[in-house]
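User: My collaborator sent over this chain with a note saying "see what the structure looks like." That's all I know about it. Can you take a look?
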Amino acid sequence: MIATIKPSVLHGEIYAPASKSSMQRACAAALAAGGTTMVINPGHSNDDKAALGVIHALGATVKEEARQLIISSSGIHAREHTVNCGESGLGIRMFTPLVAMNEEEITITGEGSLVTRPMDFFDEVLPQLGVSVKTREGRLPLVVKGPLQPRDITIDGSLSSQFLTGILMAYAASGAKNVTVKVTNLKSKPYVDLTLAVMKAFGLPVPENMNYEAFYFVGSSYIPDAAKHREYTVEGDWSGAAFLLVAGAISGNIIIHGLDVFSTQADKAILNALISCGAGISIEANQIALRPMPLKGFEFDATDCPDLFPPLVALAAYCSGTTVIKGVTRLAHKESNRAITLQEEFGKMGVPVELQDDLMIIRGGNGVKGARLYSHHDHRIAMAGAVAALNATGPMSIDAAEAINKSYPNFFDHLAQLGAYVQYV
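Assistant: Without extra context I'll predict from the sequence alone. Here is the result:
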């Protein structure tokens, strides 16, 4: 699909999309905790659909009723021998330890860029927990055979906190007793907070958080309760909404509803960047209003929220002076190598992006040219290009724009609802 976005003035109100970070964790917790869960405000992205497919393969049933989902589970009892995580990095990292709770051999597959992402973590860690693991030289497919046995272990959290999320979920569901998960070099701590919050909401045993350096399960045998009934409301997505917030700061008077300002989502930090650059922003408990204002360069540490790089670069393009963003090393194993991709695509728009070790330096405020962009099949690159187009000197076209379906399938429609000229074929 090719999407064309012309310079536009935005106005109006919109609700933020559902958080796939919250949605996918809720799917895993509903499976592991057992019982019947009514999921309110469910997400519909490709990653969300992949998560629902995984929990079905692992024994849950899923029904859609009146724009809500009903998930029923008696615990993790695989009904299929192959599990497909789609293109979801969170999905593969979170669900693999849960898959490994089964005694039979199960193959875990994926699609798109996921098949090239490193899976060495599982080769190194799962055998320590009594799980047999086979990979294709550290890549998918993964073949695991459990059952996983919770033990004291030390894991490296430098690549992603999502591995830790999967281990914590599996330990809780396995009834871990008096065991400790130690973590070194942990990144994205807010996402760990989200994991622990979801576990608590579903009644799973929550480990003691020892300053993010260790997680201690006091333990009592956990048995999934098939008779339990609960409701869980999926939060609005700060990751997707970050693009809307930046769009408002660049090109319009808009109001965004459905975002929890007290959320543990890491990408809530976009508010700090908007305030730092002088954006016209008004934050209330149930809505956030944006209006265009002169913007200035800013400094931002995105180490714990690397998914913010694309909207931050779009924002920096319209900030006079130099913007410096830290955390580039977190970008290599995304849907694309995002540091290189952002440098290439924003270079086409006449926006210089320099890379220096762990820093990205953007020199903005000199205008953004219309250009022919390529998403590199990366949803956040497609959205960043669309946002950058809103105040450019000419139209922006984006090849492979269907990449947005991974996380925010309604993104172009939402931009159009706010008054943007959007056409896609």
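A starting point for your reply to your collaborator: DSSP finds twelve helices and 24 strands in the chain.
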